[in-house]
RNA sequence: CGGGGAGUGGCGCAGCUUGGUAGCGCGCUUCGUUCGGGACGAAGAGGCCCCGGGUUCAAAUCCCGGCUCCCCGACCA
């Protein structure tokens, strides 16, 4: 493609409100155009990159045995009522009515549609397994799109759905997709980590995210520092070893006066005990609650509550911090509360409205300082089991950098920021039950198919790749996803020999199967070099009067600081060699 | 949804406090010169100043209402 004919122009200045590198460079290089908040058009260069990513994904999905299909973006709301997600999907389903007043939705994902398709064609265990995928537009009316293509409302997504007859089959399908994902990201030239993740409301037992490490990412992940240990997890999911306290004989419960002490740190200092010898109380309520229910969380003073883990402990109900009014009406004394004495069945602190959830850090820690449920008083020597109990005891603590790895190794957790570019789930039978995807098994019994689902955000992957690969001049695109392989610039546009030689070389490269963006514009060298750096193709080739005096052209890799001269006669081969290296 | 910021030629901005001819840089058009890291000269084109209402002789500027976009947070299978 001749740059003079390529639609779209480079911009010297980025829009002032573009803050992240990928947003700025995608806009300046003319890859995308913003249409509305979180809604973008792809221009020719951007779409070529997106197509390259899509093709890599397509090849690897096909290789993994998945079959490509295409499902509708606009679909009847009844499908979503059948699965039960019509009113629960967050962010809210975008809806519209067709001319016959029928309720339609704009699909944010396609579990319903795929399962509907599977149900109509699945009869026997002999039909299983199969895996269906598409690369297609999704719309999610996110509350806050941000950072260019990193978080948008409408986007291209590869979504695949596997169907198996049993758990073993699901494991095989799941592993096949994980392997395909590793190949896809490797071929795209980006370094991702597969991390354990929370499944969230979609449910299922296993879920892994593929995260590209980048400071501008929205996600926090923890990776074990031990090279021989593979532990890596999203902060929402991350576990860690909580060192057990030294065994101590339980002391006698003792009330102490703690005037004006409201924080754990203040309490620990005032009583001269380590923070991890205290237990703090945090009050939550189910998001939807207006009835005064309280979730009373007890966790060791040195730990913070992980609200995702808490949500799972609350059977999926979204937790929110309880309001001061709710806390007061439950008879709890903020700043001096504890689960000790929570069992009193009379009065406002009736257990009917209070669920006690205790982090497992508490049960092995003897003689904790706890609230006395009386303003300005605390208790020494609180012991789980003797003085208080929980309705639920589980891990609800937030991991922090430096915590011990949960695996059997000597490592600790190292914190990274990252962008989630892929997510794979084991769904189980939830959708096959609601949508009726059943089959007759070998023994003649009717069973529900076990499902998995597997997503990749295609545009986000492009943005993430730029976040991870750029410098202060522009993108440094991995070759496999760059819109072209070579940026060919002819300098000295007043020199007929240079122009003719550059044009000839352009034809020669194309004939040799090299994808070339030929900068044939009548622009000064500086403009061409800066645009070459901005667009970030892997290799820059310069034809100039200076070089041609020695019968040479110049080649420079985008990720290299030095250029090298090559005889023009060997140019095509030299370019091919450089692209492979 | 809570908090903050911003809407003026394609992009980046000034003008608004103190109402009175819309301005600058880049980009764009034409001609000439120039040609290895965002060249130079000359002549041009291009603006419902976000929208609606109000005040005023007069509104980009003041007042009221609305819309949009960005950032932080909440949220984000």
Would you mind describing this structure in some detail?
The chain is of the alpha+beta class. The chain folds into three domains: 21-238 and 415-467, BirA Bifunctional Protein, domain 2 (2-Layer Sandwich), CATH 3.30.930.10; 254-394, YbaK protein, CATH 3.90.960; 484-580, Anticodon-binding domain (Rossmann fold, 3-Layer(aba) Sandwich), CATH 3.40.50.800. A hairpin with a 6-residue loop joins strand 30 (552-557) and strand 31 (564-567). The model has no long low-confidence stretch (mean pLDDT 85). The structure holds one RNA strand of 77 nucleotides.
Task: Tell me, rounded to a whole number, the average pLDDT.
Answer: 85
Number of separate domains: 3
Kindly, what is the distance between the CA atoms of the first and last residues, rounded to a whole number of angstroms?
A: 23 Å
Largest sheet: 9 strands, mixed
The count of β-strands is 31
Any low-confidence stretches, pLDDT <50, length ≥5?
A: none
Class from helix and strand fractions: alpha+beta
CATH topology of the largest domain: BirA Bifunctional Protein, domain 2
Shape: globular
Number of helices: 15
CATH H-level superfamily title of the largest domain: Bira Bifunctional Protein, Domain 2
CATH-derived architecture of the largest domain: 2-Layer Sandwich
CATH class of the largest domain: Alpha Beta
């Amino acid at each position: 493609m001749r740059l003079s004919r390529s639609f779209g122009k480079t911009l010297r200045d980025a829009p002032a409100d573009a803050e992240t590198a990928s947003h700025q460079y995608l806009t300046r290089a003319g890859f995308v155009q913003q249409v509305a908040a979180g809604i973008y058009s792809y221009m020719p260069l951007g779409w070529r990159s997106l197509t390259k990513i899509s093709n890599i994904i397509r090849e690897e999905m096909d290789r993994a045995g998945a079959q490509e299909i295409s499902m509708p973006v606009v679909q009847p709301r009844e499908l979503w009522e059948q699965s039960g997600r019509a009113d629960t999907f967050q962010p809210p389903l975008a809806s519209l009515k067709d001319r016959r007043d029928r309720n339609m939705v704009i699909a944010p994902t396609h579990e319903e549609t795929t399962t509907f398709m599977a149900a109509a064609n699945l009869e026997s265990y002999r039909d299983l397994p199969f895996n269906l995928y598409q690369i297609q537009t999704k719309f999610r009316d996110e509350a806050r799109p941000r950072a260019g293509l990193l978080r948008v409302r409408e986007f291209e997504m590869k979504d695949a759905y596997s169907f198996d007859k049993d758990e073993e089959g699901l494991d095989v399908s799941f592993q096949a997709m994980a392997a395909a994902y590793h190949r896809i990201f490797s071929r795209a030239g980006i370094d991702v980590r597969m991390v354990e993740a929370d499944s969230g409301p979609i449910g299922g037992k296993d879920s892994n995210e593929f995260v590209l490490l980048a400071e501008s990412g929205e996600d926090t992940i923890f990776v074990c520092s031990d090279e021989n240990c593979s532990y890596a997890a999203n902060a929402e999911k991350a576990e860690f070893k909580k060192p057990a306290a030294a065994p101590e004989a339980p002391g006698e419960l003792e009330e102490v006066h703690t005037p004006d002490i409201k924080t754990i740190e203040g309490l620990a200092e005032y009583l001269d005990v380590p923070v991890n010898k205290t237990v703090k109380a945090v009050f939550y309520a189910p998001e939807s609650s207006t009835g005064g229910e309280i979730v009373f969380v007890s966790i060791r003073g040195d730990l913070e509550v992980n609200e995702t883990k808490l949500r799972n402990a609350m059977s999926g109900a979204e937790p929110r911090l309880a309001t001061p009014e709710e806390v007061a009406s439950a008879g709890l004394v903020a700043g001096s509360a504890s689960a000790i004495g929570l069992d009193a069945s009379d009065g406002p602190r009736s257990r009917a409205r209070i669920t006690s959830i205790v982090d497992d850090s508490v049960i092995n820690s003897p003689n904790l300082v706890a609230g006395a449920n009386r303003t300005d008083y605390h208790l020494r020597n609180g012991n789980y089991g003797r003085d208080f109990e929980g309705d639920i005891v589980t891990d609800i603590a937030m991991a922090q950098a430096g915590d011990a790895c949960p695996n059997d190794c000597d490592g600790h957790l190292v914190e990274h920021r990252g962008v989630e570019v892929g997510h794979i789930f084991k769904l189980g039978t939830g959708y096959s039950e609601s949508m009726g995807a059943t089959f007759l098994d070998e023994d003649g019994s009717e069973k529900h198919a076990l499902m998995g689902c597997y997503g990749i955000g295609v545009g986000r992957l492009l943005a993430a790749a730029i976040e991870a690969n750029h410098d202060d001049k522009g993108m440094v695109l991995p070759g496999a996803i760059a819109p072209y392989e070579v940026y060919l610039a002819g300098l000295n546009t007043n020199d007929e020999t240079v122009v003719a030689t550059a044009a000839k070389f352009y034809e020669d490269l194309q004939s040799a199967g090299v994808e070339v963006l030929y900068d044939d514009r009548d622009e000064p060298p500086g403009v061409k070099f800066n645009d070459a750096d901005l667009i970030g193709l892997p290799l820059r080739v310069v034809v100039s009067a200076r070089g041609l005096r020695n019968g040479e052209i110049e080649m420079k890799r985008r990720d290299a600081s030095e250029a090298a001269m090559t005889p023009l006669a060997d140019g095509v081969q030299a370019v091919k060699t450089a692209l492979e290296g």
